[in-house]
Amino acid sequence: MAIIKGSDYLERINKLQNEVWIGGEKVTGAISEHPAFKGIMKSKAALYDLYHHSDKKDLLTCWDEKTNEYHSFSYSQPKTKEQLRNRRQATQLLARESGGTMGRSPDYINTAIMSLGSGGAGMPKPYGDNARKIFEEAREKDFSFTHTFINPQVNRSKHYMEYSNEKIIGAKVIDETEEGAIIHGARLLATQGGITDQLLVLPAGGNFIEPSFVYGFAIPSNTPGLKFLCRESYAHGKTSSYDYPLTSHFEEGDAVVVFDHVLVPWERIFIYSDPSQVQTMYDETNMNVLLLYQAVSRQAVKSEWLLGLSEWMVRTINVVEHQHIHEKMSEMIISLEIMNSLLIAAEEEAQPNKHGTMIPDIRKLGAACSYYQKTYPRLVDALQQIGASGFISLPSEADFHSSIKEDLHQYLQAANEDAYERVRMFRLAWDLTMSPFGSRQTQYERFFFGDQVRLSSSLYMNYPKEPFVQQVQSFLKKR
Question: In the CATH hierarchy, which top-level class contains the domain 146-275?
Answer without folding.
Answer: mainly beta
